[in-house]
Amino acid sequence: MTFEKHKHYLWSRSGWLLNEEAELLYYLATRATGTMVEIGSFKGKSACCFLRGTMDGSGQKVISIDKMQRYNEYDMEYTSILAEFKKNIKECDRLGLSTLIMEDSNTSHVKIKDDSIYLLFIDGGHEGVQPKNDYENYLPKVVKDGIVLFHDSTNPSEFVDVYNLIAAVKKDDRVEFLGQIRSISIFKKR
Length: 190
Prior knowledge:
This protein is an alpha/beta fold. The protein has 7 helices and 9 strands, in the order ααβαβββαβαβαβαββ.
């Protein structure tokens, strides 16, 4: 199978991924040899990319970590996005490979074993120390030669804390910088 078969479906999902980024996630999932974990799921577009890709690959598990709450600035309150997430995942997960951990990434990392993640997609909190916390808490969970992706990491005018973290991660001896596609920075764990 190829991305062509899935692209219209994936591109039509609600979410913050650009089309090229959706294709990258699909492509990496087709080659995954272990569990994929995404931190920050929103309505499930990235999870659908992983699920469709792994269906065409070796059928690996996909774990989404998200509190499923979004702050609505207009109403000044938190609203649930769980129903939309579940609807999207139900349409994507034909093999029962998806798991949702509905809690904060600062505490949920203890539920995942070290050296158990093949692909880590960091797209949770974008401000302050949160991106760094996600990187430090979850990097030990990634296997040697596993892939670490950071979303929204290439434009300092949008998410300066993620952008600055990437500069530091590029100097981290534990990972190797592989490149960037649109707003995704790609690393391989050493």
